[in-house]
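pasting for ref
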Amino acid sequence: MVGLQYVYLAANPTWARHPRRATALGTVLSADRSTAGSHDYLEVYYATASASDQPAGQNQQHISLYGSLLPLEDLKLTANYFYFWTTEASHTTVTTRTARRFSSSLGHEIDLAAIYSYTEDVTFTMMADWFIPGNLYTSPNDATATQLVGEVKVTF
């Protein structure tokens, strides 16, 4: 299976004047609600947020290419590629519309997974994910993020 997806999250004009006031609405209306809130949280948790940062649930577009295959009856391999960019470039100083603008390139993400069905009731999954920041992010917040996850699922 192969697929292509495009997501457009509109820029909220309120965001330019009051960035955090628009967060809740943007996340609620987000087409990708499952990740928008977590991205906002992770920015704060990993200290990559800036005072002029925008909420993850708006002013964003992304395109993704994804696919999966079954090389063996019990093994499924999946891959996803995402490219993220902003709908409108944000300003370095939110309250000053004439301030320098950030780059609109948010970055690239690559997700790989292998799912092995050991039995009807037991499944093993290994996932590897990378986020390669775009030009919007500057040092020291521009390192590639890596996540490795292993999972064992037992169904009763």
